[in-house]
Amino acid sequence: MPSLSSGLAHTHPQIRPHNNHLLKSSHYPERFQAVDKRMNKPIVALLTDFGDVDTYVAEVKATILKETRDAVLVDITHQVYPQNILQGAFLLALAAKTFPSNTIFVAVIDPGVGSERAALIIETMSGKTFIGPDNGLLYPAASREKIRQVFRIKSELIPNVSNTFHGRDVFAYVAGLVAAGKDISHLTEPYVLTVQLQLPKPVWGDGWVDSVVLHVDRFGNAITCIEGGLPSDWLIAEVYVNDEWKTVAKVGRFYAEVGMGEPILLVGGTGYLELSVNRGNASKTFGIKPGDRISFVKSRA
Amino acid sequence: MPSLSSGLAHTHPQIRPHNNHLLKSSHYPERFQAVDKRMNKPIVALLTDFGDVDTYVAEVKATILKETRDAVLVDITHQVYPQNILQGAFLLALAAKTFPSNTIFVAVIDPGVGSERAALIIETMSGKTFIGPDNGLLYPAASREKIRQVFRIKSELIPNVSNTFHGRDVFAYVAGLVAAGKDISHLTEPYVLTVQLQLPKPVWGDGWVDSVVLHVDRFGNAITCIEGGLPSDWLIAEVYVNDEWKTVAKVGRFYAEVGMGEPILLVGGTGYLELSVNRGNASKTFGIKPGDRISFVKSRA
Amino acid sequence: MPSLSSGLAHTHPQIRPHNNHLLKSSHYPERFQAVDKRMNKPIVALLTDFGDVDTYVAEVKATILKETRDAVLVDITHQVYPQNILQGAFLLALAAKTFPSNTIFVAVIDPGVGSERAALIIETMSGKTFIGPDNGLLYPAASREKIRQVFRIKSELIPNVSNTFHGRDVFAYVAGLVAAGKDISHLTEPYVLTVQLQLPKPVWGDGWVDSVVLHVDRFGNAITCIEGGLPSDWLIAEVYVNDEWKTVAKVGRFYAEVGMGEPILLVGGTGYLELSVNRGNASKTFGIKPGDRISFVKSRA
After folding, report:
1. What's the maximum distance between 2 C-alpha atoms anywhere in chain B?
2. In this complex, is the C-beta atom of B61 within 8 Å of any C-beta atom belonging to chain A?
3. Does the residue A262 lie in any domain?
4. Rounded distance between C-alpha atoms, residue C283 and residue C289, angstroms
5. Is residue C196 assigned to a domain?
């Protein structure tokens, strides 16, 4: 067995040098372009860490609906672990690809609210719009859709902005204007991203792989950063969490391949390898939480 | 007091012989008929065990909205106990009767995803459509609305279906097509249901009744399978859970009839008898969970 | 330090004498007026203690959608602590101001359902409509919007009203009619409110203030009844909960002003003073729950 503790790289958010060519192509206008009203009704999709016990999400929606009643509002989730930008960025990237063009994403996980972090609008080649703070949250989703142009929202020009609730007063307000097809060029200016969050990547060795748990879903499935799964010649794998041996799991294709209560490694609906327990809860069974390091060793059995 | 332990029947899902006359009447066409576009906008009502911490529900909605922005999406609940088909079937049946015709129900509690279980569309006489797996989940709701015709979805003809997320790739995709009024006859074929789940029925004796807890609601009310309540000459009843004596409760009509913290038996908004504690939590007070056997004995007091 | 225990007043809901001039102005008609259909689509905003594990919220929505598919349904929250009218009234008042005119609020926290409490429609000067039980829940929100007229719903004329689910059978049904622009004058009559719930007010002393925790939000921020915050010359404050010293906190403007894990007092997005812990949970750190008395003493430090 290899030394697992030395193999892991890129497990924490990384800043990489700004790719100016990608983000600010001269082929595209620098003025913010209103949505083409001949298209379908816009969707406004919301992802926050606001939970469901407060009025915050409703106030975000009310602010959008003040500008237009013809947007379709969809909650992605509001249960991101408080202020966990990495988990939020992962979930936003997961969800965003399923939404059609002319979707406006409003994502608010914003521990720096009230400080100097910028408020962003990112337009993608795929016709999607991402609105949120410049703290990396939007980057994995937006970059997968190929970034067309990045704008800073001139929050200082928006009236009645509170100190702590930019989700409503800045992001939702601007999302409402965009969804309504209004011209917001006076409220925006071209901008260079300061934070380009990279989701962790697995590190592959000879018969082993190190990865990170990005998310634990409702069923307790531990979703790793291994996109596409394990090689086809892995039939059984040993599972280590934070260097501690946990179990031996079948490598399979669907949950019902193993007996009730037995572990299985498969590529879930997310497209990432996950550790599951059939009709059980892998997170509770093995004590796994988002951010944990999870390693797999191909078994000879 | 009668022997309670021998009296209970039909407390677990039953398969009953297929009633061919009911399900496949020659009076109705065998081709799937698109929704009449002159009607109101369709409602798409969703019931799953996906919870609210993941992107699954949002991906289901995005998939529907890709096909039409003019459906009204409504969440029934996504908090069904993971893979609990009986609870899901009960809640779907409860909710479905309140929805108007031209509602498309998408219900996904699907422990057999990826195995050979069929994907269904059930059309009812009441103009409602039920879409979900052939595992009994849809049956109690659909049969109450009188089944007009059952179709299998030819999932094998749908492109890009993942192994584990048929909720999005099959059920939501087809629901979107139906909501958009598109012809899906090439994707469907007449089908005979393999699982006809029956909700448990109470067993009545001389001054006693045995039943099953189908659901515990947010207030901790234990909802039994006794539709319509107890006979009008029952004023007080003794309560047994799994054969253990728990309490004596008033048989009443509304919660405020008893003092704070006192138990009461009444027919709730669901139409079923429930054991409640006024301004309290019957489930926690008496240790009751869905699936428990609950019995009542008429008291002479 | 002053005697904190003697200073607190108005911390519990108060009934005050009815102001007949305000509630029943002769300048306004006594017949219920249908919504002006030339306006934007109505919003129907829902606040209940129904939680998310049951079908109750979906049945409320289905009932509204039976009357019109053109209302925009928005959940404020359904996680109000069961039967906690004060918390519900506070959250409704918080949320209501962000919604535009032509919003119909349906608020159901209704421990007296089935008893003789009236069902209300309150019209405000701001063009908003509040529908719910006459138990104080609607009053703080509606009175901030200036009450134009109060009506009782003649529930006895509505067919098929269950004993326990007026949220669906009375309030949602009437909300659907109002949202559809239908004439409901035959179902309503002018009414004098019996309960005018007042939210608690802080009591100010020389260098100290006593208040009440109205709500604990998802982040664990303890939201007090001190609207607008502390005087600008308070830089640091000692914090007492139920007369017990808890901590010394900076008085600031945004969370990031203090280090991770440190307490801060600021005016949050709600407009009320809240005790927060930067990237932490003030409620758990200091053992605070809604209804607790919380007092602040200006520190000389």
Report:
1. 66
2. yes
3. yes
4. 7
5. no
pLDDT interval class at C32 (50, 70, 90): low
Give B-chain residues touching C167 at CB under 8 angstroms: 269
Which structural domain range is residue B221 located in? 4-8+201-298
Rounded-to-integer distance, Cα B117 and Cα B135, Å: 7
**Inside any domain, residue A229:** yes
Q: Which two tokens stand for residue C267?
A: 């005016």
Q: Are C33 and C124 within one domain?
A: yes
CB C113 to CB B254 under 8 A?
Answer: yes
> Could you tell me if A236 and A157 lie in one domain?
no
- Pairing relation of β-strands A129-133 and B203-204? unpaired
Residue B196 domain-assigned (yes or no)? no
Cα C36 to Cα C127: distance, rounded to the nearest angstrom:
10
pLDDT tens digits for range C128-155: 999 999 999 999 999 999 999 999 999 9
Chain C residues closer than 8 Å to B41 by CB: 69
Residue C35's nearest CA partner among C61, C70, C7 is: C70
Contacts of C3 (CB under 8 A, 6+ apart): none
Nearest alpha carbon to residue A273 among A208, A212, A190, A197: A212
Residue A270, pLDDT above cutoff 90: no
Count the domains in chain B. Answer: 2
Is residue C218 located within the same domain as residue C243? yes
Contact A187, A233 (CB under 8 A): no
Residues in chain B, pLDDT under 50 = 1-28, 37-38
Question: Burial of B284 by CB count in 10 Å (0-12 exposed, 13-18 middle, 19+ buried)?
Answer: exposed
| C155, C190, C225 - which closes a domain | C190
